[in-house]
Specification:
Elements lengths: L1 H71 L1 H9 L3 H17 L3 E8 L4 E4 L24 E3 L3 E4 L4 E10 L9 E8 L1 H7 L10 E5 L4 E5 L2 E5 L6 H8 L11 E5 L2 E7 L9 E7 H5 L3 H44 L14 H29 L3 E6 L4 E4 L1 H6 L21 H17 L2 E9 L5 E12 L5 E10 L1 H15 L9 H15 L4 E8 L2 H8 L1 H19 L3 E7 L2 E6 L2 H5 L1 H14 L1 E3 L4 E3 L3 E8 L6 H17 L5 E3 L15
Parallel strand pairs: 23-24
Antiparallel strand pairs: 1-2, 1-6, 3-5, 4-5, 5-6, 7-8, 7-12, 8-9, 10-11, 11-12, 13-14, 13-17, 15-16, 16-17, 18-20, 18-23, 19-20, 21-22
Length: 670
C-alpha cells in the first residue's frame, strides 16, 4: 500500500513538474498578450489625446490671451473700479468685435466689479441682471491666475452650452482684485475638435470632462451629465481626481468595458478640465484570439506527452524502492544478516552499497557496545522511543532489583522506582527537561540497591534526536559515587559549622539568613544578637579551657531554644546570633529572651574549675522587614540593640529603636 502511494505521488509530481511550468508560461503569455493589446490601445490613446489636447489647448490659450489682455487694459480697470465710462465701453466693444471676428465660438465679453456685478457686457444677454451667472466659481479666486469655468449645459441666458475664461483686474497695480475680465465661449468649437478625435480604426475616441459634472463627446453625445452615463466604472474614471506626476505621464484605466487613459489640460492655473480616451475592451481582446487558441492546443499536447513520460519515470524509481523497503522490513523483524541486492546500474546501486555498509557498521558497533558494557564498572541503559523498549547492561541488573520490561516509558518513569520519594521527583523533572531541551543531562541521586542499601549514584544521559529534532532514544550511564559523595557531604558539613559550638559559622549563618529572608516574602523574621557578659573575666580567672566550656554551654542553651523554630550561629568569640522564623515564637520574643537569660544565669558546675559558673548575657533584638530590608541591615540593627544593653547595665534584652544611639537610660529591666 505504501509503494502504491509513492508511485501515485511520483506520477503526480513528474506530471506536475512538466505541466505546471507550461501552465505558468501559458498564463504569463496570456497576460502578456492581453497586456500587449491593452498597451497598444493605450499608445493609440496617448497619441490621440496628445494631438487633440494640443488643438484644444491652442484654442483655449487664445481665449486666455484675450482675457489676459483685457484684464490689463485701462478701460477694463476703469469700469471695474467705477462702473462708468462711455469711452471705456466703446473701446471694449471694439476689442470684443475683434475677438468675435477671430473666434467663431465667442459668445460675449463681460466686465464685473469685485462683487460680481456686471459693469459692462458686449452682448446684452443677461439684460437687467446685476450679478454675473458664474460668479460663484470665482469666489476664493487666487489673484493673478486664470480661471477656466465648468461647463454650463443649456445655459438659459445664452440658450446653449457654454463655459467661460476669466482673469482678475488689478487697476492700480496694488495686487488687489478690482473685478474680472470674462470671455464666454460656445462649446460648439470644442465639440467640433472632439468629433475628429477617433483612433484605432474608428473604435476609439476622445471625451472631455470639466471635473465637476459634465462630459463632452461620450458615445456620440455632444454634452451630457456624467451621472447620466450608464456604467459606474466610467463614471468613477470621469470623476477621478488622481493627477499624473507630469503632463507627459498619463493615467491608464480599464473600467466599464473600456480601455484608455486620461490627463489634465495645461495652460490655465485653475482648471479641472481633463481629456479621457475611450476604447472598447472587447475590441482589444479580439486581436489575440487566434494566437491564444494555438497556444492552448500546444500546451494540451505537451501535457499528454509529459503524463506518459511520468509513468515511465515512476516505474524506474518505484521498483528499486520496493526492494529496499522489503529488505528493511526483514531486517527490522530480526534477520540482521539480510542485505540489499539491486541490479540496476545507477544511484540506487550506490545507495544499496552504502546501506549494506551501514548495516555492517551497526552490527560491529552493537557487538563493541556489549563488550564494553561487560567489562566496565559503569552501568548502561538505553531508552528507545520508537520501539518503546529499555535496554540495560548485565551489571545494571546485578546492582538493582528492577525489570526494564516493566518500565513505563511513556511518562518518563523508570529509575524512579528505585529512588527515594524526593529524588524520584527530582529525577522525573530532570528527565522531562532533558526531553524538552533535546540536550544532555547529569545528576546525582540516592538509589536503593538489591541488598537494600541506599547509595549515591551519578546518572549521565544524552538525548539522541532525528533530523527533525524529535527524540529517538535516551542513552545513559549510571556510576556508583557513594564513597566520594559521602566524603563531600562530610567536608561540606565541617566547613559550615563552628567546631567548638557546633552551631553555624558566621558565613553559613549569613547565607542561611539571606535565603530565609528571600523565602519569607516579607513575612516577619526575628534576629537575636547575644553577647556573653564579662567573658574576658572568666577566661582570665579560670583559663581558656573553662572559657570553651562556657561557649559550649551557651550554644547548648541556644540550640534548645531554636529547635524547630529557626537556626543559630556563632560569629566568633562570645557572640552568637539567632534567627527565629516561627510566627508564634516571634510574637513571644521578649518572653523567649528572658527565659534564655534566666537559663544562662542558672549556670552549670565546671569540673575543670570545680566551681559553679553563672553566665550573664546581653541580647539585642531586630525584626525583618521592620528594621532592615536585607539580612545585613537586620543583623546590624540587632547588634546595635545589644550594645545598647551593654551600655545600660548588661544582662538584659532590648528591641532595636532608631533613636537608641541618643537614649541614655535602659528601656527594659527585669
Amino acid at each position: 500500500m505504501q509503494s502504491l502511494k509513492i508511485k501515485t505521488t511520483l506520477r503526480i509530481l513528474t506530471t506536475a513538474f512538466a505541466v505546471i511550468p507550461m501552465l505558468i508560461v501559458g498564463i504569463v503569455g496570456y497576460f502578456s498578450m492581453t497586456g500587449f493589446a491593452a498597451n497598444s490601445v493605450s499608445q493609440f490613446a496617448r497619441a490621440a489625446g496628445a494631438a487633440q489636447q494640443e488643438i484644444i489647448n491652442q484654442y483655449i490659450n487664445e481665449c486666455i490671451s484675450d482675457v489676459a489682455y483685457l484684464s490689463l487694459s485701462r478701460p477694463a480697470g476703469t469700469l471695474a473700479q467705477s462702473g462708468q465710462g462711455d469711452d471705456a465701453k466703446s473701446m471694449l466693444s471694439l476689442i470684443a468685435e475683434n475677438i468675435a471676428d477671430r473666434n467663431s465660438g465667442f459668445k460675449n465679453l463681460v466686465i464685473t466689479d469685485s462683487s460680481g456685478n456686471i459693469v459692462y457686457e458686449y452682448e446684452d444677454i443677461q439684460g437687467m441682471k446685476e450679478s454675473f451667472f458664474g460668479f460663484e466659481e470665482l469666489e476664493g479666486y487666487s489673484e493673478g491666475s486664470t480661471k477656466i469655468s465648468k461647463i454650463y449645459m443649456n445655459n438659459e441666458d445664452y440658450e446653449t452650452s457654454v463655459f467661460y475664461v476669466a482673469k482678475s483686474i488689478d487697476a492700480d497695480g496694488l495686487n488687489n482684485i478690482d473685478g474680472f475680465a470674462i470671455e464666454i465661449i460656445d462649446l460648439s468649437k470644442i465639440s467640433e475638435i472632439l468629433s475628429k478625435s477617433s483612433y484605432g480604426e474608428g473604435k476609439g475616441y476622445l471625451s472631455v470632462t470639466d471635473g465637476t459634472g459634465c462630459v463632452l463627446n461620450y458615445e456620440g453625445t455632444a454634452v451630457q451629465k456624467i451621472d447620466d452615463i450608464s456604467d459606474s466604472g466610467i463614471i468613477d474614471v470621469m470623476k477621478s481626481t488622481t493627477k499624473p506626476t507630469s503632463a507627459e505621464n498619463n493615467v491608464d484605466y480599464n473600467a466599464g468595458g473600456k480601455l484608455g487613459c486620461y490627463n489634465y489640460f495645461t495652460g490655465a492655473s485653475t482648471s479641472n478640465w481633463k481629456w479621457v480616451s475611450v476604447y472598447p475592451a472587447n475590441m482589444a481582446m479580439s486581436q489575440i484570439t487566434v494566437p491564444l487558441a494555438i497556444s492552448l492546443g500546444v500546451m494540451v499536447a505537451l501535457a499528454v506527452i509529459c503524463a506518459l513520460l511520468g509513468i515511465l519515470i515512476t516505474k524506474s524509481i518505484v521498483n528499486p524502492m520496493n526492494e529496499m523497503v522489503k529488505v528493511a522490513r526483514e531486517i527490522q523483524e530480526g534477520d540482521r544478516d539480510k542485505r540489499l541486492d539491486i541490479k540496476a546500474h545507477n544511484e540506487f546501486k550506490d545507495i544499496s552499497e552504502l546501506f549494506n555498509n551501514m548495516l555492517d557498521d551497526v552490527s560491529m558497533s552493537e557487538e563493541l557496545h556489549r563488550t564494553i558494557s561487560d567489562i566496565s564498572d559503569n552501568m548502561l541503559f538505553e531508552w528507545d522511543f520508537h520501539k518503546e523498549t529499555m535496554y540495560v547492561s548485565d551489571n545494571f541488573k546485578e546492582k538493582f532489583d528492577i525489570d526494564p520490561s516493566e518500565a513505563q516509558l511513556a511518562n518518563g518513569k523508570f529509575l524512579d522506582k528505585i529512588m527515594t520519594e524526593d529524588y524520584a521527583e527530582i529525577y522525573k523533572r530532570d528527565i522531562s527537561t532533558l526531553l524538552k531541551n533535546r540536550t544532555g543531562h547529569s545528576g546525582e541521586y540516592q538509589m536503593t540497591t538489591k541488598n537494600g542499601s541506599l547509595l549515591w549514584f551519578s546518572i549521565r544521559a544524552l538525548c539522541v534526536t532525528d533530523r527533525l529534532g524529535e527524540p529517538l532514544r535516551v542513552i545513559g550511564v549510571v556510576t556508583d559515587i557513594d564513597s566520594e559523595k559521602k566524603l563531600e557531604l562530610q567536608l561540606s558539613e565541617r566547613a559550615s559549622y563552628d567546631f567548638l559550638s557546633q552551631l553555624y559559622n558566621r558565613s553559613t549563618f549569613e547565607r542561611e539568613l539571606k535565603s530565609e529572608i528571600e523565602r519569607s516574602a516579607h513575612s516577619k523574621v526575628a534576629v537575636l544578637f547575644i553577647d556573653v557578659d564579662d567573658f574576658k573575666f572568666i577566661n582570665d580567672r579560670f583559663g581558656h579551657s573553662v572559657g570553651d566550656e562556657v561557649i559550649k554551654y551557651v550554644a547548648g542553651c541556644i540550640k534548645q531554644r531554636v529547635k524547630g523554630s529557626g537556626f543559630a550561629g556563632r560569629f566568633g568569640g562570645d557572640e552568637f546570633v539567632l534567627c527565629i522564623t516561627d510566627p508564634k515564637q516571634i510574637e513571644e520574643i521578649e518572653s523567649l529572651s528572658l527565659d534564655l537569660i534566666d537559663e544562662l544565669y542558672e549556670g552549670y558546675h565546671s569540673e575543670l574549675a570545680n566551681v559553679s559558673i553563672n553566665v550573664k548575657a546581653s541580647i539585642g533584638i531586630a525584626f525583618y522587614p521592620e528594621h532592615g530590608d536585607d539580612s545585613n541591615k537586620v543583623v546590624a540593627a540587632a547588634d546595635e540593640a545589644m550594645y545598647f544593653v551593654k551600655k545600660n547595665g548588661k544582662a538584659n534584652y532590648h528591641i532595636y529603636q532608631p533613636e537608641d544611639s541618643e537614649m541614655e537610660d535602659l528601656q527594659h529591666t527585669l
